[in-house]
Amino acid sequence: PITTSGKRTQLVKMVCIVMIPVAVLTGLTANTFFNTFTSYMSSGIRNTILFSVELGEVVHSLQKERDMSALYISKISPVSKSFLLQRYPETDRSIEKLTFWTTLSQLEFQSKDKFLSYLNQHRYELDTLNQTVTMELGLYTTLIRVFIKWLYDTMPEAESGFIWRSLVAYLEVIIVKEYMGLERALGMVFYAKGKFPSNDVYLWFSESQDVSNATFLSARRYSDLVATLYNKNIKGNETILNVLGRMRAEIRRNDLAGRGSIKMAEWWYNNMTVYMDLLLETQSELSQEITGLLDERQKANLQKLIAISIVFVCVFVICPIIIYAAYTLTNEIQKYSISLANRTKAFNKEKKRTETLLHQMLPKSVADKLKANTIVDPENFEEATVFFSDIQGFTQLSARSSPVQVVEMLNSLYSCFDGRIALYDVYKVETIGDAYMVVSGVPKRNNKQHAAEIGTMSLSLLDHINRLEIPHLPGTKYKLRIGIHTGPVVAGVVGMKMPRYCLFGETVSIAAKMESLGKSGRIHMSYSTKESLQMMGGFTMEERQDDVCRVGQVPLKIYFISFCSRLGALPISNFINVLASP
To answer: Which GO terms describe its biological process (predicted)?
Structure first.
């Protein structure tokens, strides 16, 4: 977030993160509100139930008319004609009460008026059609079942989830009444004639009775409310069940042998009608119960709508507050991030400077161990090459110079040295006054390469020092003495407050002796260093002729190296003096 575009991008991300759950909550709430509102405003099932009551009245009236019409055809008499004519007005009134009419594919069901016209035409032509009982029952049954199918089709399945069992039971009761109506009609034919017209009619009666019993059992299993309402309505009318049981058994036996009468048919009709009226009352009460459940759901939906509306209001009120809080918080985070980034940048800069300083004081591998709080144990190196150098006549130069000039002189010299040794596999150990100490092969081992690294570095330093003048003494050049020796050393970290990486051993002392006994512009080395250089190849050496170096009374041989193929030819004054063994 340091840049302006970064701030803007981060702000957008933060607001989006906050708005995602708000948007999800709003979407879920809106979906719930829409579904609840749709359910609250929808009155499909309620209207269907109310319409089913009207259709039930139509079916009930048509069933009675069917029974009387079948009785009249089976036993034509003034009495049966009177019974039939009483049914016509009741059927017409129930049809007229229908609140709406669905246009069906059958011609007679195109409209309410067409259906009444078709029904009246059949009534007027009844005496001239030569209808049989079976044909008459089939005609009315077809009409009744069209109305029942109509009722099934009007039931909205999608909205009947929580009352579907009661709704199925309600439809089952309507089917029960239809088959009982057929049973009543066929039973009247049996009692009017004293027998069934044919075996098919007898089987039709048996089928109607069995289907009605099975369907009623199914209705009671779908809804306990059906059994409860039925038991309540049948209480006190047990006698009718006993009478109907005896008469049903008598009809099943079919043994009246033609001794039928209108009175017996009327007795059967009246008992069955009372029983069917009880079922009709059960049907009506069941519709009221379903309507009550729908009313309770409407009430619950209304309460739910109010609660969701409150949630909506809260969301829309809180949403701007949340956005403002996120915006403010993001700004604060951005300010803190910028401050933290600047501090981190400064810290990394200081850390880098500290590490650079530490690496100047200690080798990188050793410094890394110290930073990791690992103990750095002293380490023995079997072979390394140590380099010492100083300025010949440094004491006289210092006496002729001010302290500032001495510092500038040494800084000029050692800056040149530091720049050159960075090109070789060597490590600067320390500087004390005009003394300069370098080692190769420590702390990083480089096999036999250490002597060559120190040798080529020494030649390079001599070459560059000859071009360098003392800053405050123009025309005066440095006179450098160099001594090197190859041998074993021990290296380790010394000190806690100002830790230093120091070398110990005879090799260091011999290298220092080489430097102190050397000549300016020359490089003294021990015999071991000479052997290492000869092994590497590329160096030309010759013996020193004076006997300034002795061990006791025995002078040491001296050699000169006049060429190094690694660097090319150098001036003759840059010969390397080699200290050989006795």
So the answer is: intracellular signal transduction; receptor guanylyl cyclase signaling pathway
> CB of 190 within 8 A of CB of 209?
no
253 shares a domain with 164: yes
Does residue 350 belong to any structural domain of this protein? no
Is 351 in contact with 359 (CB distance < 8 Å)?
A: no
Domain extent for 177: 46-298
Rounded to 10 degrees, what is the CA torsion of 371, 374, 380, 386?
10
- Please write the tens of the pLDDT for every residue from 156-174: 554 555 677 777 888 888 8
Q: Is 407 exposed, middle or buried (0-12, 13-18, 19+ CB in 10 A)?
A: exposed
Query: Which residue shows structure tokens 């049954």?
Result: 141
Q: Are residues 289 and 390 in the same domain?
A: no
Number of domains comprising the chain: 2
Last residue of a domain, one of 269, 298, 327: 298
Cis check: omega of the bond before 443, within 30 degrees of 0? yes
- Tell me whether residue 31 is in a domain: no
Yes or no: say if 501 and 366 are a contact pair by the CB < 8 Å rule: yes
Are residues 159 and 42 in contact, defined by beta-carbon separation less than 8 angstroms?
yes
- Are 529 and 389 in a shared domain? yes
Contact 116, 87 (CB under 8 A): no
Give a yes or no: residue 558 inside a domain.
yes
Instruction: Give me the sign of the Cα torsion angle 11, 14, 17, 19.
Output: negative
Which position has the higher pLDDT, 320 or 270? 270
Q: Are residues 55 and 149 in the same domain?
A: yes
CA distances from 540 to 425, 574, 577 (A): 22, 12, 11
The answer to whether the CB of 66 falls within 8 A of the CB of 178 is no
Quick check: pTM over 0.90? no
CA 420 to chain centre: 60
Q: pLDDT (tens digit, 9 = 90+) per residue, 463-513?
A: 888 888 888 888 788 888 999 999 999 998 887 777 888 899 999 999 998
User: C-alpha distances in angstroms, 384 versus 231, 362, 437, 504, 511?
Assistant: 115, 18, 13, 12, 11
298, 324, 343 — which closes off a domain?
Answer: 298
Distance, CA of 370 to chain centre? 45
Whether residue 212 sits in one domain with residue 90? yes
Q: Give the integer Cα–Cα distance in Å for 266 and 271.
A: 9
Contact 429/398 with Cβ under 8 angstroms?
A: no
Separation of alpha carbons 361 and 429, rounded Å: 8
Residue with tokens 């300083």: 357
Contact indicator for 420, 461 with CB cutoff of 8 Å: yes
CATH of the domain at 467: 3.30.70.1230
**292 and 387 share one domain:** no
